[in-house]
Amino acid sequence: MKKTIISIVVLCFAIGAYAQEPVQSKQQKETGRYEQVQSAKIAFFTTALELTPQEAEEFWPIYNNFWKEREIAHRKIQGSLKVIDKLVDGGTLTSDGELKRMLEAYVSGFASEGVIQRKYFEEFSKVLSTEQVAKLYMAEEDFRIKMIHQLRGEHK
Questions:
Q1: Exposed/middle/buried for 49, CB within 10 Å: 0-12, 13-18, 19+?
Q2: What does the mean pLDDT of the chain come to?
Q3: pLDDT tens for residues 66-82?
Q4: Is 115:144 a contact under the CB 8 Å cutoff?
Q5: pTM, whole model, 2 decimals?
């Protein structure tokens, strides 16, 4: 009798554990959220720019390359800023030359972003009208603000 009760209890726990949804890893959740944001961005930009299917087909590969290059430049800027912070506030500053070198890298990062913006302005102008390019820049800012509000829990 004791074995039967123990077997039933173990079986109930096993069924309960098996019936639960699989736990997603942090990376899976982040990937899912990233894909949601990208889908929302595509829909938002396509509507804001009033892209035809042909324009969208030409625009998105260019925009995706633009975004990747800009992201790389931004990460370099942020990396330089973190090193500057460690040197100044972390007390690891050994020379003014070291700090100056990092400041130069930081400022150069912004120049790189400018070069990327110029390059892709010309690329966008090949596939979009001038008005659509203007709407692109406005849509980027609008979408960024929309995402900030959404992250804060303020739904606009």
A1: buried
A2: 84
A3: 999 999 999 999 999 99
A4: no
A5: 0.72
Q: Which residues contact 100 (CB under 8 A, 6 or more apart)?
A: none
Angle between helices 96-127 and 130-152 in degrees, nearest 10: 120
pLDDT at 24: 60
Show the domains of the chain with their CATH numbers: 26-152 (1.20.120)
Tokens 């659509």 sit on residue? 132
C-beta separation of 125 from 131 below 8 A: no
At 99, the amino acid letter reads: L
What is the Cβ-side half-sphere exposure of residue 24, based on CA atoms within 13 angstroms? 8
In terms of C-beta density within 10 A (0-12 exposed, 13-18 middle, 19 or more buried), how is residue 142 classed? middle
Local confidence band at 7 (pLDDT 50, 70, 90 cut-offs): very low
